[in-house]
């Protein structure tokens, strides 16, 4: 009985010394941010890739002289740029953990798997937003600088934010599932595009409406934005619940 009492006291002591969920989240997020700011591997590769995509866009649209035509499908071009750049970054999101063996240490530590998901999704979101701060203005300068944009153009910030949150949340789960697979770069794209299609469709629709500024279409903008927000809530909640199985498998 005395041994059982001492064992129970030891467990209680460990539980008291265990950091809170917020402290765990803050430590994991700070680790990812410090590591990326020190190496800049993920940010640099994403920015360079986005510049290459913009160059390809320039070559493909060189024969389109009418700026209005470019504006009409600029929302789709912009989101194609964001998605493919995000896939490159998401593939690199666990590279440091897998190469240095840090992931095994995280799995052995008494850390809630949902906290790991939240920290990694937050860091991915921050990095994606940093890249968008560079690429989105460049997209406007290269392709829409001579077009007469409506006053509703700044509204694209809403679908950009909502869409990026969904991309980071869903992409974190799928990139975790593809960590130890062969050809994970291709596998992540195969998994991500079908799963994220409703989000991308809604965000492209909302972005296109904001760029065109046609009267009578703003009901479509808010409907699409609501669909994207509902997708974020449902899919991020599902990713939160499934992340323990994805990380431990």
Automatic annotation (TrEMBL):
> So where does this one cross the membrane?
43-64, 70-90, 125-144, 156-174, 186-214, 220-243
Q: How does it sit in the membrane?
A: Multi-pass membrane protein
Record flagged with keyword Transcription regulation: no
Q: Which Pfam families does its entry note?
A: CcmB
Q: Name one GO cellular component term.
A: plasma membrane
Family note:
Belongs to the CcmB/CycW/HelB family.
Q: In its UniProt entry, what is this protein called? A: Heme ABC transporter permease CcmB
